[in-house]
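Q: I have 40 residues here and want to know how they pack in 3D. Can you give me a structure?
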Amino acid sequence: MLGDYGVRSWRGWHHHMTFVILALAFLVRLQGRFEKTLRA
């Protein structure tokens, strides 16, 4: 399982997933801001 993500440890997998979730949250928030400016 860990080999599929290109990490070698459980800690590395958690760090990777943390950054993935943060990036997703950033993009969702950015998308919401663009939708608000297009509607106005």
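Q: Anything worth noting?
A: The first helix runs from residue 10 to 39. The chain has one helix and no strands.
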